[in-house]
User: Which sequence fits this backbone?
């Protein structure tokens, strides 16, 4: 590596052997200061990323506090056998897939559409104002968003129910029916993140060569055709990339959102892997069993990312 | 360029949709503000929509007197301030070496770091690891595992990679070492992206909920998020608060107090947001295009 670096950087020049060895020395010295910077970073990644990763082997063990992760006895695939023979966990995996797939597929077009529309806006003040507003919800936590939802949909005096009452004459428990709960869950996710996710597409749109639009205009393409033939192809690789990344999240439903919105009435569809791990694993001390479901989640996510990336690479826009 | 009638209609439809989208983001917030400062009677009867009806700050008074919100506010400030400083320092220390072509093992480290985005240790092993370090019930359990966000690190790295190498060469000739070069040239040039990352870390720590819930056993260490969550989920707490009040005081609706509590969480974000917005749009775009 060192040699190739020298060749790359120094070929335009000629050096005496003494000079080259001097540069070699200074590269050592420079690496020393880089390693002083980087050492804590290495420690961090080992301690907080790779040690938990290695700790995942507890999924194949019977964890007990006395022996810790490393010395607890092995049980092979027992934890997984229990998981996949319990109807409750099957349902939780199904719920996780249902909620995340609905969120991904329904939510996916929104940021793209917002970005394309914003791109057509010529009045800068308007564009900036809209951006300011639609980026804002991203910075609110789910506690805030769920707090707003619970307040707005409250049956006693929530504003939505007041409207509903004046229209239909009775109140409706939106958060306590599976259908409306699901609708609120998915749309709250879109409300919170669609605007901010548009940033990526806005960036991609900004890098499209403007002469392409001029050429299309000269060829008689109207705005609609320009969007179809210039804008969309210009961001297609970003779209594919974002899709791959979202595939990696199919197995995870963010804890905060579900945890804040769920209630026992809709637990048939609202109990997901992350809330299950919290309740059964952390609160109920079923560490090995929930570590197993966590490992299952991680592995499936990794496989999904690899597969989507393979497919994307066939279209020439893979992540790696 | 002259727009045809059809194009004009299309563009105006775009404008209209964007106005609706912007208002959709704004209205819930205005509604909450109005609920928190409206008259109790108006809130209880569900009349308050956009504008406040009447005016009373009873909800805030009761929030600050009847709940430990001041303590959790202070906890949130502590968690955020220390967390942002630590995270920024270590993200910079991680990103800079990864941009140096002569850094031994650069490719290996980059791969190892990106891999953590694709495959994670899972909740339970992470929890037990942090427990084994003795970090439970200390804010160290929030600061240390969150020291470097891999995503932020990659954004900063791609920004630093774009700094022209001529500057580096010139600095070398002047005998400038890596620390000095980082401090004098790279960091000042990276200001827009650094502001963005500080905002992201700040919002992340301010909003942190699950980690606090998971790692803090001591309720006096709870931050705003957890306190507000418990207020929202246990209306009994409010019922108790109300019943313990003297009889002449008006009973407040849960909506009012929740709204006031939400406002306490939202306000700091709203105050910082306008100053940082122009930076993060720039910063994220750079990260997005290159990353």
Assistant:
């Amino acid at each position: 590596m060192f040699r190739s670096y020298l060749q790359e950087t120094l070929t335009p020049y000629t050096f005496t052997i003494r000079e080259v060895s001097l540069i070699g020395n200074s590269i050592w010295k420079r690496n020393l200061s880089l390693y002083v910077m980087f050492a804590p970073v290495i420690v961090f990644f080992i301690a907080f990323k790779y040690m938990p990763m290695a700790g995942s082997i507890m999924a194949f063990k019977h964890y007990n506090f006395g022996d810790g992760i490393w010395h607890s006895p092995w049980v092979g695939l027992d934890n997984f056998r229990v998981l996949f023979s319990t109807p409750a966990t099957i349902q939780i995996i199904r719920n996780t897939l249902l909620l995340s797939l609905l969120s991904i597929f329904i939510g996916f077009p929104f940021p793209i559409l917002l970005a394309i529309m914003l791109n057509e806006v010529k009045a800068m003040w308007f564009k900036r104002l809209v951006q300011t507003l639609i980026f804002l919800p991203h910075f609110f936590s789910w506690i805030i968003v769920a707090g707003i939802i619970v307040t707005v949909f409250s049956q006693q005096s929530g504003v939505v129910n007041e409207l509903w009452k004046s229209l239909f004459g009775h109140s409706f428990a939106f958060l306590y029916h599976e259908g409306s709960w699901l609708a609120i869950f998915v749309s709250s996710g879109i409300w919170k993140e669609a605007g901010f996710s548009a940033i990526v597409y806005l960036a991609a749109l900004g890098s499209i060569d403007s002469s392409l639009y001029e050429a299309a205009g000269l060829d008689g393409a109207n705005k609609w055709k320009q969007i179809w033939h210039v804008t969309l192809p210009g961001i297609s690789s970003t779209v594919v990339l974002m899709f791959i990344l979202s595939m990696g999240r199919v197995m995870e439903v963010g804890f905060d959102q579900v945890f804040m919105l769920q209630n026992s009435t809709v637990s048939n569809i609202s109990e997901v892997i992350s809330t299950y791990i919290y309740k059964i694993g952390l609160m109920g001390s079923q560490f090995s069993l929930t570590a197993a479901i966590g490992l299952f989640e991680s592995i499936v996510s990794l496989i999904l990312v690899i597969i989507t990336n393979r497919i994307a690479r066939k279209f020439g826009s893979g992540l790696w | 360029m002259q727009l045809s009638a059809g194009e004009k209609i299309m563009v105006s439809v775009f404008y209209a949709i964007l106005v609706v989208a912007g208002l959709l983001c704004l209205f819930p917030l205005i509604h909450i503000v109005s609920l928190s400062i409206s008259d109790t009677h108006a809130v209880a009867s569900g009349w308050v929509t956009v504008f406040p009806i009447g005016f009373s700050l009873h909800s805030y008074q009761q929030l600050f007197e009847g709940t430990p919100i001041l303590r959790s506010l202070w906890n949130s400030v502590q968690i955020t301030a220390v967390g942002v400083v630590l995270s920024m320092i270590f993200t910079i220390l991680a990103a800079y070496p990864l941009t140096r072509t002569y850094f031994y093992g650069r490719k290996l480290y980059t791969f190892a770091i990106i891999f953590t985005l694709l495959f994670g240790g899972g909740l339970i092993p992470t929890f037990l690891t942090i427990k084994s370090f003795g970090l439970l019930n200390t804010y160290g359990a929030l600061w240390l595992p969150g020291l470097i966000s891999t995503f932020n690190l990659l954004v900063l790295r791609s920004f630093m990679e774009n700094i022209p190498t001529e500057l580096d060469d010139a600095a070398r000739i002047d005998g400038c070492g890596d620390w000095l070069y980082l401090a004098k040239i790279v960091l000042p040039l990276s200001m827009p992206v650094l502001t963005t990352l500080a905002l992201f870390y700040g919002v992340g720590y301010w909003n942190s909920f699950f980690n606090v819930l998971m790692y803090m056993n001591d309720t006096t260490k709870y931050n705003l998020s957890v306190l507000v969550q418990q207020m929202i989920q246990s209306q009994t707490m409010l019922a108790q608060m109300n019943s313990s009040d003297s009889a002449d005081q008006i009973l407040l609706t849960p909506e009012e107090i929740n709204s006031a509590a939400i406002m306490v969480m939202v306000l700091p974000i709203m105050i910082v947001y306008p100053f940082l917005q122009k930076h993060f749009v720039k910063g994220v775009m750079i990260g997005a295009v290159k990353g």
Summary: Residues 1-7, 9-22 of chain A have pLDDT under 50 and may be disordered.
